[in-house]
Amino acid sequence: MHTDIAIIGGGPAGLQAALSIGRIHRDAVLFDDGRYRNATVSHMHNVVGNDGTPPDEFRALARKQLAAYDTVSVREERVESVEEVDGTFHLRVADGTTLTAYAVVLATGVRDALPAVPGLEDLWGDLVAHCPFCHGHELSGGRIGIVGAAIAPHMSAMLRRIASELVVFSDGEPLPEDWDARPEVRTERLVSVERHDGGVRVTLERPDGERSHDQVSGLFVKPTMTQSAPFAEQLGLALNPSGCIRVDEFGRTSRPGVFAGGDLAHLPAYPMPMASVTMAAAAGQVAASGAIMTVLSR
Ligand SMILES: Cc1cc2nc3c(=O)[nH]c(=O)nc-3n(C[C@H](O)[C@H](O)[C@H](O)COP(=O)(O)OP(=O)(O)OC[C@H]3O[C@@H](n4cnc5c(N)ncnc54)[C@H](O)[C@@H]3O)c2cc1C
After folding, report:
1. What is the pLDDT along the chain (298 residues), one digit of tens a residue?
2. Which of 6, 58, 86, 244 makes an SS bond possible with 101, Cβ 3.0 to 4.6 Å?
3. 37 lines ligand 1 (CB under 6 A)
4. Do 125 and 207 fall within a single domain?
């Protein structure tokens, strides 16, 4: 089996890439193994025209609209490896088949590892989040908690107008000394968090073992992001210090014929991946344009 462009990933980046390729009537196969970064989120925000739309509805509509383009097909399969042989890419798929392609768009996203506090995972994407643009407004007027000293100055500045009160749970980490506008800080060990009374109950422990509770409407944390698929490594792609794939303004990676867009990649000019639905879709479109340019002469 052969296609012009293989797209790996069916989140906003991969779906937009597929749409752009379909509109030029080039062949593409999109692979999606159903593991989306925002899988635990009931409503996404800060997406123009889709503020509050459930992410699964967004993806379902994109898939429905893609069905109008005969040259694009979607396979609900995991790609296990990508290898380049004489300028053609060979994708090994989990069902045992192989697909070859002239170009590849990687849109496999990232995985989040949360701070090791019991209970955070259960509330992730609901009462625990990492992005004030995505989740801040829904917590407005409440007492909002920030987990970790390193993110506290920036995060508290971002949330200052949204929260009625802010509290930093530093979990014993040292706070920056030159931080003037600091809100309430609780330095005790963070024992656990749990859903309680419409918000989050935080259990803390002092060095002498005495425990206490704090109640907040929601918590902000900093996850550690890692590539969710092995293709950057398999293809020997250059990475940024963030661990994301280095791309240029056209979504080109360090290997000709391989393009990347979405959370897994970013331009070195950005200090970090600008990880959002809109940015991922835009990057998917750019990566698709780059990939189309490489197959135009075929
Ligand atoms: C808790 C949380 C809340 C968020 N809320 C918002 C919000 O409100 N607004 C907003 O704009 N952004 C939000 N985001 C960010 C947003 O989810 C991401 O920026 C966006 O999903 C990135 O899109 P993507 O296409 O790069 O990756 P993803 O959406 O993660 O899609 C990755 C795709 O790759 C596929 N894949 C991975 N490996 C393979 C493989 N080997 N074979 C086949 N397929 C594979 C997956 O199955 C999936 O289809 C949130 C993120 C989190 C974690």
Report:
1. 999 999 999 999 999 999 999 999 999 999 999 999 999 999 999 999 999 999 999 999 999 999 999 999 999 999 999 999 999 999 999 999 999 999 999 999 999 999 999 999 999 999 999 999 999 999 999 999 999 999 999 999 999 999 999 999 999 998 888 887 789 999 999 999 999 999 999 999 999 999 999 999 999 999 999 999 999 999 999 999 999 999 999 999 999 999 999 999 999 999 888 899 999 999 999 999 999 999 998 8
2. 6
3. yes
4. yes
- Domain-ending residue, one of 220, 250, 272: 220
Which residue in the block uniquely carries the two structure tokens 């698709």?
Answer: 288
User: Residue 141: which CATH number?
Assistant: 3.50.50.60
Number of structural domains (the chain) is: 2
Q: How far is the CA of 35 from the centre of ligand 1 (A)?
A: 8
Check whether residue 236 and residue 281 sit in a common domain.
yes
Query: Does ligand 1 come within 6 angstroms of the Cβ of 218?
Result: no
Cβ–ligand 1 contact at 41 (below 6 Å): yes
Which pair of tokens denotes residue 144?
A: 């909002």
Give the distance (Å) from ligand 1 centre to CA of residue 89: 24
Atom of ligand 1 nearest to the CA of 43: 8
Q: Which residues have a Cβ under 8 Å from the Cβ of 138 and sit 6 or more positions away? A: 45, 218
Q: Residue type for 171, please?
A: D
Report CA(273)–ligand 1 centroid distance (Å): 13
Residues 13 and 99 placed together within one structural domain of the fold: yes
- Model confidence pTM above 0.90: yes
The runs of H, that is alpha helices, within the chain are 12-23, 55-66, 120-123, 132-135, 152-159, 231-234, 277-295
CB 219 within 8 Å of CB 128: yes
Structural domain containing residue 155: 115-220
Question: Do both 189 and 102 map to the same domain?
Answer: no
> How far is ligand 1, taken at its centre, from the CA of residue 244, in Å?
14
